[in-house]
Amino acid sequence: MKQTFVFLFLSLSYAHSVLGVCRTDTLPDRQLQRVEVYEGKKRTQLRSSVPLQSLSAEELKSLPVLQVSDAAKFFSGVQVKDYGGVGGLKTVSVRSLGAQHTAVAYDGLLLTDGQTGQIDLGKFSMEQVQTITLANGQMDDLLQPARALASGALLSLETRLPEFSAQREYHVSSRLTTGSWGLFNPSCSFSASGPRQWVGGVSAEWTQTDGHYPFDLRYGAEDAITERKKRNNTDVRALRLEAFTAKRWNSGALWKWRAYFYQSERGLPGATTYYYDHAAQRLDDRNAFVQTQYQQDFGSRWSLKASAKWNGSRQEYLDPDYKGSEGQTRNDYRQQEYYVSAALRYRPITPLAFAFSTDGFAQTMEANLTDFARPRRYTWLSALSGKYTAGWVTLNASALFTRVFERTLSGASASDRSRLSPFASVVFTPFPKENLRLRFFVKDIFRMPTFNDLYYGTVGTRTLKPEKALQYNAGVTYEKAVARWLPQLAFTVDAYYNRVSDKIVAIPTKNLFIWSMVNLGKVDIRGVDVTAQGLFCLHQDWQFRLSGNYTYQRALDVTSDEAGTAESLTYRHQIPYTPRVYASGTAALSTPWGELSYALLYSGKRYALGQNIAANRLDPYTDHSLTYRYDRSWGKHSAALLVECLNLADKNYEIVKNFPMPGRSFRVTLTYQY
Question: Residue 79 in contact with residue 96, Cβ under 8 Å?
Fold first, then answer.
């Protein structure tokens, strides 16, 4: 009965912050425009040929989020590995394909890490993000870089471009967040308009926390004895700086430029195993990139998008407890990437369009390790896409060709690789008067092993095979305005099947920076994602909203020998850190005196290792949070107060084994805008 209630509650989902939908009085033009943009975005999600989820800046105000990783937890089919605290590593996997199969884009260009292949979402604040979008497979848009097609899923972060008027030629914003465990997080931004439709701005953010939250350290094989202690080596100090400029011509052409810099110094909390909870490892992280993009339409038939990017990063890892002759370990890793892209779209007739995109990029890695390979990877991607749209059907197809050249400055290199990756999708609207749609897609994709997979000390191996993934999806979407008190009701149901060959799984060992690479051979993933959306209008200024997502999946290791017999004790066991059931939900009440929101995260049991036995099992967890937000405007000024209570039940649950999450905590945020 309890599970049924949880499922029914979480299956009701609302697309947050549709302010103005329930109202009948006259609103200023600016508010009407924002509602139209929002509604268009939601219709795009429901009409997409692939599962597409999105959260806008307005929607995120109702959720307890500080970093991008916090927001990703509210998407269906997503598993976020979180090692606890503000400074803990946070990576995202979609439908159990692994973090390396999930690309992360920032303003349309991918964020990359050739060393590990996974992006730490804890580096990115919500301050500048306007929209977060998750697409399984790939987006329907033809005019995009070929690299955006080269992954199993795409998490896209879009920043806001400020809007100006004759009465307001600049914007100033400041925010201060403080809370438990010594959290101090101020930020400020400034943007202005210039002559001839130029705009630009800068922003800065500082994050500091000691992270000394209490937890229960367990002793004995049965965890019969516990001791209340505090996490150590969990402090973080991080600085983020961004600058941007953009220009729009009367012809519709748009040019954007953005520079990003991030620097952090943090401790790496150790695993809390039995009598041991000591950690002293440190990590200094610096990352910078500069990217630019130009887009223009040439009449109604031709469109061009050109992009370029430079990315550089440096990580310094220190282990003062190393017992070798030097008394410590200090590793220095440096990466660089140079990237160019061009995409051209041609529309010969209204319902039909084609596109060709080609990308080239070079990645290098240096380290102070003895006999390090110093790898160089040169990759060329070319994609040919087509789309046909007629009233009741939309067809989308693409073919991506990948060519990878591996080189090293020391020792042997891995083999060069090439592969053709097709994709096809279709959307049907069987009933013209109903917003009911059926969608299907299939995609074949692969990913190269990372530099760590191939070249890292005794862990990497140059003969490691690339992962290959075959994705299938069948779903239905529906939207309807039921009544005046229920103006929007929508749901999506998607069933999927993923077949992964030569699956590579990274499992942390004694700390967050040392990993053990395991090749599972073949993985069979089957699951269902469910969302539903609805808004209840209680009064002209009162709204009640429910939000939730539900995922059920079986991700099994099906590696076997040629005779079809099981090769190991993990045969047909759930792969590590993949719950069978995952759900999230929110309930929000909007009133003239502010908005009160409740958020819920639930994960079923998981296993830390491939063998599904009691010793490896992680218990289910539920995380409850409450937020209250009050906004006030006067003239050109506005201010907001946000109070959050996180993990109401005060449970030190574990997302990753032996890395307890913080218990009950509080955050208070003050925001001022002009």
Answer: yes
10 Å Cβ neighbour count for 341?
A: 24
pLDDT tens digits for range 517-576: 666 678 999 999 999 888 888 777 888 888 889 999 999 988 875 445 556 788 899 988
Which single residue is written with the structure tokens 């993985």? 523
Strand partners, 70: none
Q: Which residues contact 570 (CB under 8 A, 6 or more apart)?
A: 520, 557, 559, 610, 611, 612
What are the CA-CA distances from residue 286 to residues 110, 115, 129 (Å)?
Answer: 18, 14, 21
CA distances from 549 to 40, 446, 456, 580 (A): 21, 28, 38, 14
Distance separating alpha carbons of residues 665 and 231, to the nearest angstrom: 14
For residue 597, what are the β-bridge partners? 588, 627
Task: For residues 39 and 661, give the distance between their C-alpha atoms in angstroms, rounded to a whole number.
Answer: 37
Q: Could you give the strand order of the β-sheet that contains 52-56, starting from the edge strand earlier in sequence?
A: 52-56, 129-136, 153-159, 102-106, 109-111
In the three-class reduction of DSSP (H, G, I as helix; E, B as strand; rest coil), residue 451 is classed as: helix
The model scores a pTM over 0.90: no
The C-alpha atoms of residue 584 and residue 599 are separated, in whole angstroms, by 8
Question: Do residues 598 and 588 make contact, with C-beta atoms less than 8 angstroms apart?
Answer: yes
Written as six digits, the tokens of 670 are 């003050």
What pLDDT shows up at residue 173?
93
Q: Give the tens place of pLDDT for each residue, 148-195.
A: 999 999 999 998 888 777 777 889 999 999 999 899 999 999 999 888
> What are the structural domains, with CATH classification, of the chain?
2-673 (2.40.170.20)
Q: Smallest Cα–Cα separation from 205: which of 669, 633, 674?
A: 669
Residue 53's CB: how many other CB atoms inside 10 A?
Answer: 24
| Residue 238, both tokens | 């991080």
Let me know the angle formed at the C-alpha of 495 by 489 and 500, rounded to the nearest 5 degrees.
Answer: 145
